[in-house]
Amino acid sequence: MKLLIVDDGQYVVEYLKHLLDWRSFGIEHVLTSTNSIEAKHILDDNGIDILITDIRMPEVSGIDLLEHIHQSKLKTKVIFLSGYSQFDYAQKAIRLGILDYLLKPVDKEDMEKAIAQAIKSIEAMPKAAAVNWQQFDGLGFLLSLLCETIAKEMAFEQCTGSLDASSFCFFKIADYKEIDEATIRDYNGGLSCFIWRTDQLLAGLVRHEDCKAIAERIANIKLSDEFQLSHTNRVRHQFYLFFHNENMGFADYASIQDTIQLPSMLESEGLRKAIMKRYAQLDNNKLKLLFLMELIASLYKSDSALYELNSIDWIFNELQQPDEVLQQILTAMSQHEKCKKLSNEHTIRMIHDYVEAHLGDGLSLEELGEHVHLHPVYLSKLYKQETGENLSAYISMKRLEKASRLLIESNLHVVDISQMVGYKKTQYFIKLFKEKYGVTPQQYRRQQFNG
């Protein structure tokens, strides 16, 4: 485990560093800093398990460090120190989830209790379950790190935990050969889900510990600086710097927040117009890149199978020409919309054919969903969206139409016809029939023969 001690007083840092036998608590590395700005970088780059920090410091306070830990989704446990009781600060710290709050001068026994509690809390954290990396959605995972719109919707926390033990680097190889991809797969610890190819580029993530061996075998590979996947801001910074030569900072992400929220309920043509309008409002290349990346992520989330190949090319190759990428995205949306419409029309035809052939059966949403391989709830929404009517209303209409034909073309009793069109309760059938035709089944039959 790693411990970081931060205080603007050098003597305090030295006192705390030698206050306990840290190794007896399983803490192998003790890092210190008297510069709270530097402390942020240490937190980002070193996988710190426990932070002991003064709550009041110049430039960056202990509260600021705690908020940084939350924003960066770090798992660091925090113990605050203060020279005097400051209840307002303590209240905010408690809301943000500090582990303990100690007054200076720190008593050895109190510190021992606080560290023991921190270790107990760390050990109680759920261990990451085994992940099937062969089936893992590596591209979705990368997009969840890079983008705000889907970060909270795509639940990859478990996988991030499984990868915390390693640092990573981005890589790219121009004019790659088949042997280059095979080499990276051999030396990347089974994480083939993080290797992507386009016509011009082989790109992705490799573990930092494997970089030397890979670089010795692939002369033209380029590697980014290392980072940990749990440190979202550093992942984003390295990605844009490495692949698109843009030095993105936290302020850039903050400035795009309002812009990336696209209307979700617009029909497709309206959505495309909204996208073009928002894009036209962006006045620099950084914002265009961020906007397009968020758009790509949203499309990928909506249908990964349709958008995967396009997304890989856009993300690693094409984004350096953002205006062209926007047009490519809009064209792909139109093409995929047409494909989806044809697919939906085929699904509706399958439903109609099945209903026609099984009017005497139960015809539940579950049964129909199984027939067309769709979830019953989604099937119901899809049918309403494509036809403008409820599926139950369509089934009822077809049943009553068949009943009206049987009344004319056969001498079957009303009870038998009711059963043949799927109504086990004859009175309910008669009620529905009268609502549609204005007369009872018997009256309808007489009218047809006497008319």
TrEMBL record:
It comes from the Bacteria. Residues 349-447 form the HTH araC/xylS-type domain. Its main location: cytoplasm. InterPro entries: CheY-like_superfamily, Homeodomain-like_sf, HptR, HTH_AraC, HTH_AraC-typ_CS, Sig_transdc_resp-reg_receiver, Tscrpt_reg_AraC-type_HTH. The keyword Cell wall biogenesis/degradation does not apply. The keyword NAD does not apply. It holds the Pfam family Response_reg. Residues 2-119 form the Response regulatory domain. It is found in: Cytoplasm. GO terms for biological process: phosphorelay signal transduction system. The modification 4-aspartylphosphate is found at residue 54. GO terms for molecular function: DNA-binding transcription factor activity; sequence-specific DNA binding. Gene3D superfamilies: 3.40.50.2300, Homeodomain-like (1.10.10.60). Keywords: Cytoplasm, DNA-binding, Phosphoprotein, Transcription, Transcription regulation, Two-component regulatory system. SUPFAM superfamilies: CheY-like (SSF52172), Homeodomain-like (SSF46689). GO terms for cellular component: cytoplasm. This is DNA-binding response regulator.
